[in-house]
């Protein structure tokens, strides 16, 4: 068991990685199939059914349940896996129903992080590990200061291209508007919960909920419930200027996401310095 932080997006993104999900399913099925007959009996499936967290009314909070009710729930769950009702569950049935149940959990959790106690070999733990590996690969340690950000913002062409690219990436349904759900990843990356830039602090989930709601309203200038490109650009500029003012002009070391505006500012500055160096060396 370990305590982890996850949200619905963690699960959905894991499921969308077919290769990672299929490997996890095959490994888990083989682990449960104690007699190696390619089928899971009720007894073999029981540990998996117990780990599905279906008795939680609030994710991350276990509640005491009547044993007879648990038996009925596990019987019902097994039937959901046993699509052909032959009394056993094969690999394809196991994979299909696991996917559906994880999607249901993702929908129930929503997109605000919650803290949960997870079994080491559970699918939820696999989803968290998958996300951690992806995040590790998408972060880098950079040195920047307020001037890095200000100079990037003053290059209208570079900033506008970055804004358009980021907006298109977030606009998952391509309707030209960003919903709260589509904006959430951007809001989480704004580093507003850092009291010292470059140092993350642990924050109460309820406080995060209020902060992200407030930030979304700041972007949604006309309060129509969505954010268009111009609103996104204007508020991104204001928030980056606020970050620049907060950082000052002494360099700090920060861990940045590869596609974040701060990382774009660092890359822009590096490209300018490289071009300047090349120009000087050629004269």
From TrEMBL:
Signal sequence residues: none
Domain of life: Eukaryota
InterPro entries linked: EF-hand-dom_pair, EF_Hand_1_Ca_BS, EF_hand_dom
Database matches in PANTHER family: CALCIUM-BINDING EF-HAND FAMILY PROTEIN-RELATED (PTHR34574), OS09G0482800 PROTEIN (PTHR34574:SF10)
Protein name: EF-hand domain-containing protein
The UniProt record lists the keyword Lyase: no
Domain EF-hand: 69-104
SUPFAM superfamilies according to UniProt: EF-hand (SSF47473)
PROSITE patterns found in the cross-reference section: EF_HAND_1, EF_HAND_2
UniProt keyword list: Calcium
SMART domains named in the record: EFh (SM00054)
Lineage: Eukaryota, Viridiplantae, Streptophyta, Embryophyta, Tracheophyta
GO molecular-function terms, A-Z: calcium ion binding
């Amino acid at each position: 068991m370990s305590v982890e932080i996850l949200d619905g997006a963690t699960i959905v993104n894991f499921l969308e990685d077919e290769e990672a999900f299929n490997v996890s399913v095959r490994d888990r099925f083989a682990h449960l199939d104690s007699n190696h007959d390619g089928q899971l009996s009720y007894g073999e499936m029981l540990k998996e059914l117990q780990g599905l967290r279906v008795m939680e009314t609030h994710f991350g909070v276990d509640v005491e349940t009547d044993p007879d009710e648990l038996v009925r729930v596990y019987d019902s769950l097994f039937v959901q896996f046993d699509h052909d009702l032959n009394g056993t569950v094969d690999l394809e049935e196991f994979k299909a129903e696991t996917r559906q149940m994880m999607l249901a959990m993702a929908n129930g959790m929503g997109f605000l992080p919650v803290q949960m106690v997870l079994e080491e070999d559970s699918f939820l733990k696999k989803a968290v590990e998958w996300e951690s590996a992806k995040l590790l690969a998408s972060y880098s340690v950079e040195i920047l200061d307020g001037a890095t950000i200000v100079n990037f913002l003053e290059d209208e062409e570079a900033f506008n291209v970055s804004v358009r690219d980021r907006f298109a990436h977030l606009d998952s349904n391509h309707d030209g508007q960003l919903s709260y759900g589509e904006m959430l990843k951007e809001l989480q990356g704004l580093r507003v919960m850092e009291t010292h830039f470059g140092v993350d602090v642990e924050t109460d989930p309820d406080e995060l909920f209020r902060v992200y709601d407030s930030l979304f309203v700041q972007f949604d200038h006309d309060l129509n419930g969505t954010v268009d490109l111009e609103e996104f650009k204007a508020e991104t500029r204001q928030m980056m200027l606020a970050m620049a003012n907060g950082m000052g002009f002494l360099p700090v070391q920060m861990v940045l996401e590869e596609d974040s505006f701060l990382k774009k500012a660092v890359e822009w500055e590096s490209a300018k310095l490289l071009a300047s160096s090349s120009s000087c060396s050629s004269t």
